[in-house]
Specification:
The protein is α/β, with parallel strands linked by helices. About 40% of the residues lie in helices and about 15% in strands. It folds into two domains: about 160 residues, Rossmann fold (3-Layer(aba) Sandwich); about 150 residues, Rossmann fold, CATH 3.40.50.1370. The strands form three sheets. A five-stranded parallel beta sheet has the order 9-8-7-10-11. Strands 2-1-5-6 form a four-stranded parallel beta sheet, with helices on one face. It has a two-stranded parallel sheet with strand order 3-4. The relative contact order is 0.16.
Length: about 325
């Protein structure tokens, strides 16, 4: 493994190896495994779990890390190609990334979707431009259309809880949110669950269908694993027998890049908030998952989030273990 950009870029054996290594490192620490190694972390967007878990994971393996947040004590960085740089940005990523890479053994980058051009965000063009000029192992900390670190942590969480892969029912449900959110986490979650071999249902209101390239990639993963993928707006039918309800909001593709129209479009959908009655027809031990941060009583009710079905803290904790496995394989082999 030379980079960690996308679960789709790994074979099933490589994913199984990372999950097994994460479980091993959780049980049997190796505090000198990456002694002398340095991880550079470049965050164009805010973070809590991703930042903290990578720094903690690197430290637990005996390595060190440094963090750059462009515009916060460092130069604002330009990501567009061919632009006349007469604005706020003082430096281009084509210089900044190779320089940062020269100080470190691996580089992680977080760069959210632009949110204005759906085609550009689906192509992950900004992130891939930066990947092209990175000479050291690169880790995707969340890009416009992917979040493989979250997806791998979610996979480990379901393994820990013995949620079935073959025959397991995974419902990715849209939830209301006061603003349009990116597609990265829902796209990664639906692909991950399909690749795991689960029967995946995307539950969403009419007009919030995931873009066809996202669904096509998930269907391709399901074909390999023996799972299935579908979409529906029928909440009762979707939740029947579910083993996981994974809540996440995302912007309506039909109004992508138009927040005013999108806000009006979602205005009447505040009942898409996960509550106890959502679990009436699920499997008895159905779990609630969310990538965090989550808005209480907007996305999910307190009673669910604080109840026995919620595994969001366990899920977040697993981010560190799987990322340690990624770092170990990238920097030690």
């Amino acid at each position: 493994m030379t980079n960690f950009l996308d679960l789709a870029g790994l074979g099933r054996e490589e994913i199984a190896d990372l999950l097994a290594l994460a479980a091993h490192l959780e049980r049997s620490p190796e505090p000198k495994a990456l002694s002398g190694k340095i991880l550079a972390l470049l965050f164009f967007n805010p973070s809590l779990r991703t930042l903290a878990s990578f720094q903690a994971g690197m430290a637990r393996l005996g390595g060190s890390s440094f963090v750059i947040s462009p515009g916060q004590g460092t130069w604002i960085l330009e990501t567009r190609d061919g632009v006349v740089m007469d604005g706020a940005a003082a430096e281009h990523v084509r210089e900044a990334i190779p320089v940062l890479a020269s100080y470190a053994d691996a580089l992680g980058i977080r760069s959210f979707a632009g949110g204005t051009d759906l085609a550009a965000d689906l192509s992950d063009s900004t992130f891939l431009t930066m990947a092209d000029v990175c000479p050291v192992p690169l880790i995707n900390l969340e890009s416009a259309i992917n979040h493989p670190c979250q997806a791998l942590g979610d996979w480990k969480t379901m393994d820990d809880l013995k949620i079935p892969a073959q025959g397991g029912r995974f419902v990715l449900s849209w939830a209301w949110h006061p603003k349009p959110l990116p597609l990265a986490v829902p796209a990664a979650a639906v692909h991950m669950a399909a690749l795991r071999g689960m029967d995946v249902t995307v539950l969403r209101p009419e007009g919030f269908e995931l873009p066809e390239p996202v669904m096509a990639r998930a269907r391709q993963a399901a074909e390999v694993s023996g799972g299935s993928v579908r979409e529906t707006a029928d909440r009762r039918e979707a939740l029947e027998g579910a083993h996981v309800i994974y809540a996440k909001s995302w912007t309506a593709p039909v109004h992508y890049g138009n927040p005013e129209a999108e806000a009006a479009f979602r205005a009447g959908l505040r009942d898409w908030c996960v509550s106890d009655d959502w679990f009436a027809t699920t499997a008895p031990d159905c779990r609630f998952m969310h990538c965090l941060p989550v808005r209480r009583n907007v996305v999910v009710k307190d009673s669910v989030l604080d109840g026995p079905r919620s595994v969001v803290v366990h899920e977040a904790g697993n981010r560190m273990w799987v990322q340690m496995a990624v770092l170990y394989r990238l920097l030690r082999g």
